[in-house]
Amino acid sequence: MLRLACLFVLIVFAACAAGDPAAEPGPDAGLPPDAGSPQPPSSTACAEDQHACGDDCVGTLPNDPSTGCALGCGTACPIPANAIATCTESGTCDFRCPAGLAKVNGACVASACEDAGYTCGTLIDESGAAIACGSCEAGVGCGADHECVIGSDSREENDTPVLANHLGDLDDAADPSMWIDDLTIDGRADEDWFRFHITDGFDGGNPDASIELATRGTQLGWLSSAHELTVWFKCDTAEAGSTVRCGEWYSIEETNTLADPVLGRGCTVDAQYLVWATVSPSCSGITDSGTVTFRIRKRTAPRGDRYDLSVAVE
After folding, report:
1. Element (H, E) at 4
2. Global model pTM greater than 0.85
């Protein structure tokens, strides 16, 4: 009888241990979240004092617009008509407009155009003089309201969080990645919303997600004009220290600056030179799974330039 009683105790103990989550190896339990890096997520991995130029790594250049500034690749900074090339303190290209012209959405136009709300076309002032207010991207016409007539992209309608385009359930154990090309902001009110779920798989490490706006097929991948990227992350369980970073090229602009009761913590950046965000989840329990929601829009009237979207989880 004593042997049977002992056997019963052993069986119960083993069953309890097998059913105890604390006794099971979680997907990535106990591992600290990755601190991340200001390097653009999809660029070639380079040393700390270098940056990517296509598939190559180069050292910091003179901060001179004739060579693409400190973080350029040796070619002159691209600038719109009538603009004067400059460099930012962080080493990226910029431009200023001569006296009498205003910097509006990546162009130098007469201040009167901005005042009148003209994105493109010709403004006739009170004296009858014709003032050029800029042009739209190639293949995009200027409408009767003097704004560029831009066609919708393949992912519309996705103008609200409810209509966000769902990109799937991405398991970090599989290291999924995707590019969605030829997206556009087609009007002042247009917003592109996307969502995906991160599944913390059994791969021995915490998940990390990245979102990036770029122009594929070019050496640097820089956009033609500034786009605003805002990213949120919400744990499936309770929040336990997740980090959401937003940046441009090789600079971090914001970290965990937003908090939304539905969408979670996040950040935003309005930039042109390889716009990116990274998400390093840290949630309560044995898994760091959760949902990433993000929005792309423009703070000024669009001219029809496209952007390509990269999403990756690893």
Report:
1. helix 2-19
2. no
258 and 296 inside one domain: yes
pLDDT confidence of residue 42: 64
Domain around 57: 50-96
- Please check whether residues 133 and 272 belong to one and the same domain: no
User: DSSP secondary structure string, 68-94?
Assistant: T-TTS-SSPPP--TT-EEEE-TTS-EE
pLDDT tens profile 86-143 = 998 888 888 988 877 777 767 787 778 878 888 889 988 778 888 888 889 888 999 9
> What is the band of 64 on the pLDDT scale with cuts at 50, 70, 90?
very high
Q: Are residues 82 and 130 in the same domain?
A: no
Total of domains in the chain:
3
Amino acid in position 7: L
Name the DSSP letter for residue 11: H
Residue 128: exposure state from Cβ atoms within 10 A (0-12, 13-18, ≥19): exposed
Residues 60 and 143 in one domain: no
- Measure CA 104 to chain center: 22
